[in-house]
Design brief:
739 residues, alpha/beta, N-terminal domain of TfIIb, seven-stranded mixed sheet, 28 strands, disordered C terminus, binds iron/sulfur cluster
């Protein structure tokens, strides 16, 4: 197979042109220029003066762009050879039930996988996909199909993907990685205030007297946002951090509380108990703009600091100090991340933060508000565009007959009114034989979803799988058809960042070989299945999306220009709303929703005595598909390390850099140890990006009952030292197989 080899000589600098576009990684949505030479090769990235970054970039934005020109880029459609059935993983890595002997290398071995596919024309590949998906729809019904879209795609791509799944295939089984990220936060926000988006932008922290930074690590995961937090701290904002693992921003905090895993509800309930008991709550705001205060007051009454101290590990005096500083502040912002949301009680955790903001009257003014820091560059926009199973674009319920009628009229089809399955539910349904066909555009669930052994079984059990991506991912190893797609820097489209700012990404290079624009692929598949989508270009798709999604009213490509605008945007000449809900909430009065402390499903015992926390690190991104193919980023951080507290390490006989085995009730991985006091005794931290130490071999598939988000933060494990150097063989008595 031909691969795209970008072996171009560097161009003279005066031949390089600057193209204004965006960073493709996190939800901060930094504006940048790519310097592109005459051969279409990106020579550099430099920050431009965007509303969210003021010219700043982190290491990923500055150096992480060369993945688009990686030699492994797919350039032609691929079809699985007959000899590669029955369907299953094609590489030694993906077949293993554990890390087993560690195989170095962070990306799919094409020599191992490619022989199982043959190149095909687009005509043949699209015909095969249309027949595969259409055949299942006609034989087993639309709900035997599902689609995973991508938060890395544009709003236009997200809109068309959900339209394809709903209007062409006829099911609401469409979701994306928001389900692994902030689905619980969004559930709590819509329930509590009637809107899932942030109320205030990150840079509003410069107006805040206090900022609570809960369960997030912005210096690693939202680095440019973190620079504004540090700047605010230097100018006098008191930062209060709460986290199981010490975040870098703690260096700038007035107070850092290292709570026990899963203790957030106890901590925030105790803070609210103190605030109410000491009369620091905002009675005027509560009376005028909220409902349910009495129920909240009753629920938190028994979470006194003395009761909360053993539950949270935070001394009562520190809980009181936290509550007083927050309660006395004239303005306070609330930022949170995966440490809050990625739990089976993630919705309850978010409910507490929302209640705390309402209790102290901190919504609707500059320097206040709720800000769940969005992960992917377009996870906000993808959700806004309806890439979720229960809502059409603009968070309009699929179960509302009036909404259904409107979309039926617009799209000219009959639509299903039953909310669809979420990401992890789709995996479970595939195992049960209820989902038979899957369209996966730009996601890699084999590595990103919990309990990899179950995901492997689920992917292998499908009747038909089509994967549309830049590379052969671990998920694509299971595919019947692989469609070569376009990278961020090869497409035009809008992206909505964590601040609700809608900005245009612009192409700076051509897709390699025969790789195509993702929306063209969707359009051509729809055509084959009897739906004629006559969009002239991306802006026509955006206009239709705006027509369906009221929050995006007044936005057009022309008005977005180079700088973008915030939504909602009340008029054609408005910059958009920086602060929401000054007067009224979308549901009228906001609701206090009390929460009780929950119990995680996978708790330590004698066999698995430690708690594993999983998450991200600065230099990498999600399943590493992009960053591990970026030369600079991979060179800076080539390997996973499990973080171990020095006291635990001493007890277990583990030294810095020593190979270890982490085993959970579902599998095990081998990884080198890094000794640090950032993690508490009894806990470990493993980044999620490294397939050779795949965190999701270990994690549990249990879900939050509301947001349907998996438990990625509490997983009972044991840690065992391996003989140095790595023997590739676990010690006697340690099983590789999932128990
Ligand atoms: S902070 Fe996020 S958007 Fe900005 S450069 Fe870094 S990864 Fe890109």
């Amino acid at each position: 197979m031909k691969t795209f080899n970008e072996a171009h000589p560097p161009a003279a600098l005066n031949k390089v042109r600057d193209v204004p576009t965006l960073c493709p990684y996190c939800g901060v949505g930094c504006a940048l220029h790519y310097g592109v030479d005459e051969a279409g090769v990106i020579q550099y990235a430099r920050g431009r003066n965007g509303a969210s970054n003021a010219g700043r970039l982190c290491v990923k934005g500055r150096y992480g762009f060369d993945y688009a020109g990686h030699p492994q880029r797919l350039t032609r459609p691929l079809i699985r050879r007959d000899s590669a059935y029955p369907r299953g993983p094609l590489s030694g890595f993906s077949r293993q039930n554990s890390s087993g002997p560690r195989k170095p290398g962070g990306i799919v071995d094409y020599d191992e996988v490619l022989p199982h596919f043959r190149e095909a024309s687009w005509e043949e590949a699209l015909d095969r996909v249309a027949a595969g998906l259409g055949g299942i729809r006609d034989t087993h019904g639309p709900d035997a199909l599902a689609g995973f879209g991508s938060a890395k795609g544009s709003n236009e791509e997200a809109y068309l993907f959900q339209k394809f799944i709903r209007a062409v295939l006829g099911t609401n089984n469409v979701d994306h990685c928001t389900r692994l990220c902030h689905a619980s936060s969004v559930y709590a926000l819509i329930e509590g205030i009637g809107s899932g988006a942030v109320t205030n932008v990150v840079r509003d922290i410069e107006n805040a007297e206090v900022a609570v930074i809960a369960g997030c690590n912005p210096t690693a995961n939202h680095p440019v946002a973190a620079t504004f937090m540090k700047q605010a701290a230097s100018a006098g904002t008191d930062l209060l951090a709460v986290n199981v693992r010490r975040p870098g921003i703690a260096d700038y905090c007035r107070q850092y509380c290292q709570i026990k895993p899963g203790a957030d509800v106890a901590f925030y309930n105790a803070v609210m108990q103190v605030i109410i008991a000491e009369g620091l709550h905002d009675r005027t705001f509560i009376d005028a703009r909220t409902g349910g205060f009495e129920a909240l007051q009753a629920a938190v009454a028994h979470y006194t600091p003395a009761v909360a101290e053993p539950l949270t590990g935070i001394p009562a005096s520190e809980i009181i100090a936290f509550a007083r500083r927050l309660g006395q502040a004239r303005s306070a912002m609330f930022f949170w991340g995966m440490g809050i949301s990625q739990h089976v009680f993630g919705t309850d955790n978010a409910r507490c933060l929302i209640a705390l903001a309402l209790l102290t009257g901190n919504i609707g003014r500059p320097g206040t508000g709720l800000h769940p820091l969005r992960g992917q560059n377009n996870v906000q926009g993808a959700s806004d565009a309806g890439l979720i199973p229960m809502y059409y674009p603009g968070y309009q319920s699929v179960a509302d007959p009036e909404v259904q009628r409107r979309f039926e009229a617009l799209w000219g089809v009959d639509l299903p009114n039953k909310p669809g399955l979420t990401t992890a539910e789709i995996t479970h349904a595939a195992l049960d034989g209820d989902i038979r066909g899957l369209y996966c555009m730009g996601e890699n669930p084999f590595l990103s979803d919990p309990d990899m052994n179950r995901v492997r079984e689920a992917l292998a059990s499908l009747d038909f799988l089509v994967v549309q991506d830049l590379f052969i991912t671990e998920t694509a190893e299971f595919a019947d058809v692989i469609l070569p797609a376009s990278a961020f820097m090869e497409k035009r489209g809008t992206f909505t960042n964590t601040d609700r700012r809608v900005q245009i990404g612009r192409p700076v290079r051509e897709p390699p070989g025969e790789a195509r624009q993702d929306w063209h692929i969707l359009r051509d598949l729809a055509q084959r299945l009897g739906h004629d989508w006559g969009y002239a270009d991306e802006s026509a798709v955006f206009d239709e999306f705006v027509e369906t999604a009221p929050p995006y009213a007044n936005l057009t490509y022309e008005r977005l220009g180079e700088q973008g605008r915030w939504y909602p945007c009340p008029s054609a000449d408005s910059e958009g709303e920086r602060v929401l809900f000054s007067e009224v909430f979308p549901i009228g009065r906001a609701r206090f929703v009390p929460a009780e402390l929950g119990v995680a499903p996978d708790l330590p015992d004698d066999d698995y005595p430690l708690v594993l926390n999983t998450g991200r690190q600065l230099e990498h991104w999600h399943t590493g598909v992009m960053t591990r193919r970026s030369r600079a980023l991979d060179a800076i951080a080539p390997e996973a390390r499990v973080e171990v507290h020095p006291d635990d390490a001493a007890r277990l006989g583990i030294s810095e850099g020593q190979w270890t085995q982490i085993a959970s009730r579902r599998g095990d991985v081998q990884v080198q140890a890094h000794l640090t006091r950032d993690v508490a005794t009894g806990t470990l931290f493993l980044p999620m990006h490294f397939r050779e130490a795949a965190a999701n071999l270990l994690t549990s598939p249990e879900l939050d009952p509301f947001g349907k988000i998996p438990e990625f933060k509490i997983c009972a494990v044991r840690l065992v030292p391996l003989s140095p150097p790595s023997t590739q063989t676990p010690p006697a008595g340690v099983s590789h197989a999932a128990s």
